[in-house]
Write a structure and sequence with these properties.
CATH topology: Nuclear Transport Factor 2, Chain: A
Number of helices: 3
Number of domains: 1
Helix content: 25-40%
Number of strands: 6
Order of helices and strands: HHEEHEEEE
CATH architecture: Roll
Radius of gyration: 15 Å
Largest sheet: 6 strands, mixed
Distance between the termini: 32 Å
Structural class: alpha+beta
Strand content: 35-45%
Shape: globular
Length: about 130
């Protein structure tokens, strides 16, 4: 279930802060293992580089997305701002990344907002990313 309105504020704050801490310390895989529901859905800003669906469903698909990123980009600098708590079951995080696409050598800055929704078990059930234009 997405939209776990029965999630306590303390659970929301703990999950949000833990995710941010893992992102800041390069422990994203640990965050995926501990904080996400196995059926979680991740929605990117647009289609993947091969024109694929921007939505990844399930933990294996989300891990695959992370693997693809690590294989294709060299990150020079990254920062994480937040978390920003929303009443109920959601929080937001702002990511800023300076990275080079390995194949093309093109360096670019990226800034996006991640919106995370917890299920009634206090696990991340959905993440959606919004980018600056």
């Amino acid at each position: 279930m997405i939209g776990g309105r029965d999630v306590t504020t303390e659970t929301l704050k703990t999950v949000a802060q833990t995710l941010v801490d893992y992102c800041r310390t390069g422990k994203e895989e640990q965050g995926l293992a501990e904080l996400y529901d196995q059926r979680a859905v991740s929605v990117e800003v647009g289609p993947g580089p091969d024109g694929s669906n921007p939505e990844s469903a399930g933990m294996e698909a989300i891990k695959g997305k992370h693997t693809w990123w690590a294989e294709n980009f060299e990150v020079h600098e990254a920062s994480v701002e937040g978390p920003f708590i929303h009443d109920g079951d959601r929080f937001a995080v702002i990511f800023q990344i300076d990275a080079t696409h390995k194949a093309s050598g093109q360096r670019q800055g990226m800034r996006e907002v991640g919106i995370y929704t917890l299920n009634s078990d206090g696990k991340i059930a959905r993440e959606e990313f919004y980018a600056t234009i």
